[in-house]
Amino acid sequence: MVGREVAELFDGEGAHQVFAFDHAALDVADRDSVLGAIGSVRPDAIVHCAAMTAVDACETERDRAFLVNALGVRWVMEGARRAGAYVVSLSTDYVFDGSQPEPYHEWDTPNPASVYGQSKLGGEFEIDLECAVVRTSWVIGRYGANMAKTILRLAAGDTPLRFVDDQRGCPTIAADLATMLRTFVVERLPGTWHVTNQGPVSWFEFAGEVLRANGDDPARVAPISTADLDPPRPAPRPANSVLDNRALRLAGRTLLPDFRESLPTLVRAIADGA
């Protein structure tokens, strides 16, 4: 979802030679595969978007989650050191347990409650100080499976639309996130950063915004609590996934816009099958 947006953005500028590897061409869990690919390309920069993001599957496939999300980052970082490349690696709001009422900033202490969050935090530990970790949340986009597509698919049928109202976060448009990742690559910003679109909402509120952007009635959506989900989800979800983009703000950087500004364009793209 994010990797394709990043590749298209850089490739479209015509000023970069872009090498984009999907899972079939490069398995980040395979050290030889990673070192071979990086060694053959010898890139100036690597945007590491690959991950095992099936949150519930991570609960039962713990070793696989850590192999991909933690050890895979180690192999990427090893290859980057050999090539002298800068790395920006994507991480997640799930490194926090979601128990505090305030938005999480970059200097808050992680405490992941799920295997997915634990494995992604493990990946953060593998990144060198002069490279960057970018935590994001609730990513939606034109490519891959995501909540925006799920909502639109359900809205096209007769299925009742019920979404939880006790989990809050900042929906992040993949295309918007890609533009900020470009900044990281060009300027080689170091350290840990939170990058999301602005506008914290619950999943219930977000579903209503998707319907509104699609010219549908937001009142079709009904709220439900996480405890009432049937069947219950294997992996715990943070009640508060709102990430404060404090480092960007303090550095005087322009934050990504409110997700509602970009949502209509995304909804149209999904409807058109882009």
Write the layout of secondary structure elements.
Elements: H1 2-13, H2 31-41, E1 45-48, H3 55-60, H4 62-83, E2 86-92, H5 115-125, E3 132-136, E4 139-140, H6 147-155, E5 161-164, E6 168-169, E7 172-173, H7 174-187, E8 191-194, E9 201-202, H8 203-213, E10 221-224, H9 246-250, H10 259-271
Parallel strand pairs: 1-2, 2-3, 3-8, 4-7, 5-10
Antiparallel strand pairs: 6-9
Describe this structure in words.
With 274 residues, the chain is α/β, with parallel strands linked by helices. The chain has one domain (2-271): Rossmann fold. The protein contains 10 helices and 10 strands. It has helices at residues 2-13, 31-41, 55-60, 62-83, 115-125, 147-155, 174-187, 203-213, 246-250, 259-271, and strands spanning 45-48, 86-92, 132-136, 139-140, 161-164, 168-169, 172-173, 191-194, 201-202, 221-224. It has a 4-stranded parallel beta sheet, sandwiched between helices. Strands 4-7 form a two-stranded parallel sheet. Helix 1 (2-13) packs across helix 7. The longest helix is centred in the N-terminal third of the chain and has 22 residues, at 62-83. The mean pLDDT is 96.
